[in-house]
Amino acid sequence: MATKKFKCELCGYIHEGDKAPASCPKCAAPADAFTEIVEAGAEAPAKKKGLDTSSNTYTIVCASVMVIIVAFLLAFISSVLKPTQDANVENDTKGQILTSLNIDIKASGFNVADEFKNVQDMLWNGTELVPYEGKFLSSYGSAIKAGELHVFVAQAEGETKYVLPVTGRGLWGGLWGYIALNADKKTVYGTYFYHESETAGLGARIGERWFQEQFNGKPVFAGENTEAVALKVVKAGASKAENEIDGVTGATLTSDGVSAMVQDGLSVYLSFINN
Q: Do 268 and 149 touch, CB atoms closer than 8 A?
């Protein structure tokens, strides 16, 4: 049987054998870079019909098409689910605000959306509360930094309550919460705190009701001094003053973060609290 010759189209290397080599020994080009050399008078080999599914080009094209299809599907699914996801986040935020009002949102048959209809989302403009006309926010850090001070007004136990959003930093990430004040705005009615990534069993316990309920009834200020927020979190077991809260055992830095968040957060609202 006559030996065939194959030429590498990239470097010109000539290979002799029954078929093209797996790769060019000279330039490492793949087998599909070789073309059989047909001697004068010999019949050229018939070309394969259709796509060469073993070629690199075919593989690259298929992979590219699959990436585009998957990207399109993910974008489509995301756009379809986004309204539901946004509604869930909004409902969760409203539940947190209601929890700060000592409302058990986990009670059987409780509907957060229906209950929140009794809460007014207001803005403190420095002199008075005015209705907030924008889209409901699910986080308030950026709004507070921009001077947009939200105050949620509700009725509980026959009295007006004011819920103030606060944000801060813990050991590993962000902290946030809501502090409900009584009608006098000088004592705490209830709180809700949560975290981004505090340690489970330690700092994460700020999200438990036993910690949050320690704030109930606590004064915001010390005595007649209403220019400085005195409410704070101290080392676990060390609280003595009426405006001190026991921190979480083994989570000093997270407890300090909550203390700073409470003091800094309420300080932003001093003009409202003292109005």
A: yes
Cβ pair 86, 92 in contact under 8 A: no
Burial of 21: CB neighbours in 10 Å, binned 0-12, 13-18, 19+: middle
What is the pLDDT tens value at each position of the chain, 275 positions in all? Answer: 567 889 988 888 999 988 889 998 988 888 888 898 887 655 555 555 566 676 777 888 889 999 999 998 888 888 888 888 889 999 999 999 999 999 999 999 999 999 999 999 999 999 999 999 999 999 999 999 999 999 999 999 999 999 999 999 999 999 999 999 999 999 999 999 999 999 999 999 999 999 999 999 999 999 999 999 999 999 999 999 999 999 999 999 999 999 999 999 999 999 999 99
Q: Please name each of the domains of the chain with its CATH number.
A: 1-45 (2.20.28.10), 112-273 (no CATH)
CB 232 within 8 A of CB 262: yes
How far apart CA 204 and CA 178 sit, in angstroms, is: 16
Instruction: Name the burial class of residue 119, with classes exposed (0-12), middle (13-18) and buried (19+) by CB atoms within 10 angstroms of its CB.
Output: middle
Kindly tell me the burial class for residue 149, based on how many C-beta atoms sit within 10 Å of its own C-beta (0-12, 13-18, 19 or more).
Answer: buried
